[in-house]
Design goal:
single chain; about 400 residues; FAD/NAD(P)-binding domain; six-stranded mixed β-sheet; five-stranded parallel β-sheet; 10 helices; 28 strands; about 30% helix; elongated; disordered N terminus; disordered C terminus; binds flavin-adenine dinucleotide
């Protein structure tokens, strides 16, 4: 394959295999959009690799963790979503042979002409002692199932405890990290736990939810108006929010804060941060903040123009804001779109397109029927924001299930 610089389109003859590693928001989007774009180039070989044969609707995990949605409902089978020309291989990606352009997997090496890395994130424990061992995380449908099971077990244990104080402690879920994930999880649990408490022989006011955040505010980076609205709903739901509360260690007794206080509970969940998967750290690829892979403005790895990165794994600086874009599905989908366009451009000999992020706004559910939203600088809170969140999830599901690579705005 002829590797030219970005301003000179490649003379790719279309026969080099394109391999997409990861069928999450970014990777699946690349697969769907690319097959639509390559309709007239049937010789290009497209392979999608993932450890699961389903796509996970991660943005819906707080609902699974709060018991309002079944885990299987957020595992969307890939079969039927992909067009027939995409070869799907279910296997674990273990590493890369950059020199020979081979993806190293559980089913053997897979050669790429162009590789798309879209392997997502994993929880970041920031090396806080005990955190990885003593907390549950929330990144997969199975994680979410475990959180809900642990919350119910905690209610059972609380019901068997002799005194109200002990009951209260055991029936408390402590969530570390006051970002959108922590807020959504705390809201769901605060709304659902009192409902199920009765079935465990507990008073509805016995369960508790605490949200522990190291920074001065929850939903950092959002407008003060949005934050105030979220705090109001959380407080209405009985969530105890602690800010400026840095967790120094997770012990058998609970979260030990830097100021020496102990936050006790029956279940501890860590939603305080994400980092790149381990295998990328040992790959020889250039990495930046949180181990994410550094890319050029076309989303190709620096010094490796045969590899694109999209989604959480890409370290993309937003030139307007001057900081790295956050790990969001919205960002992953937009990056996936640019990667699909650029792969198509390489095949058809067109110039590459630089990535620009177009922020569509920010919506966070807080409990089962309310939420907060910031669209075009306008902050709203209440039922409308929750309806908006439902609509976004519904629209996403429709797009991946039914488009099958059809591109309504093909250029
Ligand atoms: C609880 C929660 C709620 C969220 N809610 C929102 C929200 O409301 N809005 C929003 O914009 N963002 C939200 N996000 C962030 C959003 O989910 C991520 O930004 C998005 O999933 C990133 O997409 P991705 O394609 O990079 O990674 P992922 O969607 O995580 O996909 C990565 C894929 O790679 C596969 N994979 C990883 N490693 C390997 C390997 N070694 N071998 C084989 N396969 C592998 C995985 O199975 C997975 O399919 C939320 C995140 C969490 C954790």
């Amino acid at each position: 394959m002829d590797m030219r610089n970005a301003d000179n389109p490649s003379t790719d003859d279309g026969s080099s295999p394109i391999v997409i590693a990861g069928a999450g928001y970014a990777g699946l989007h690349v697969a769907l959009r690319l097959t639509a774009r390559l309709r007239n180039n049937p010789t290009v070989d497209v392979t999608l690799v993932d450890r699961h044969d389903y796509h996970q609707a991660i943005t819906e995990l707080p609902r699974v963790a709060g018991g309002t949605r079944a885990a299987d409902a957020v595992r969307l089978p890939l079969q039927g979503m992909l067009s027939e020309r995409v070869r799907f291989i279910q296997t674990e990606v273990n590493g890369f042979d950059l020199a020979r352009r081979h993806l190293l997997t559980g089913t053997g090496p897979i050669r790429w002409g162009r590789l798309v890395l879209a392997l997502g994130s994993r929880p970041n424990d920031f090396a806080i002692p005990g955190l990885a061992q003593r907390t549950l995380s929330l990144y997969t449908a199975s994680d979410a199932e475990l959180v809900w099971a642990a919350a119910r077990d905690a209610l059972t244990a609380a019901a068997a405890a002799p005194d109200p104080e002990q009951q209260r402690r055991l029936a408390t879920v402590v969530v570390g990290g006051g970002g959108a994930t922590g807020v959504e999880l705390a809201g769901e649990l605060a709304e659902m736990l009192p409902e199920v408490a009765g079935a465990h022989g507990l008073a509805p006011d016995r369960p508790g939810v605490q949200l522990v955040e190291a920074g001065p505010t929850i939903l950092a980076g959002s407008s003060q108006q949005l934050i105030d609205k979220a705090i109001r709903i959380l407080s209405d739901l009985g969530v105890q929010v602690r800010t400026n509360a840095t967790i120094a260690a997770a012990t058998e007794d609970g979260f030990r804060l830097q100021d020496g206080q102990l936050v006790e509970g029956g279940v501890f969940v860590w939603a305080g941060g994400l980092k790149a998967p381990e295998l990328v750290a040992d790959s020889g690829l250039p990495t930046g903040h949180n181990g994410r892979v550094k890319v050029d403005r076309y989303l190709r790895v620096l010094d490796h123009p045969d590899i694109y990165v999209a989604g959480d794994l890409a370290s993309v600086v937003d030139p307007r804001a001057g900081h790295v874009l956050p790990p969001l599905a919205q960002v992953a989908l937009e990056e996936g779109e640019t990667v699909a366009r650029n792969l198509d451009a390489e095949v058809t000999g067109q110039p590459l397109e630089a990535f620009t992020f177009r922020d569509k706004g920010f919506v966070v559910s807080v409990g089962t029927s309310r939420g907060v939203a910031d669209i075009a600088g306008l902050a709203t809170g209440g039922r409308l924001a929750h309806v908006l969140k439902d609509a976004i999830e519904w629209e996403y599901r429709q797009s991946v299930k039914h488009l099958r690579g059809w591109d309504p705005v093909a250029r």
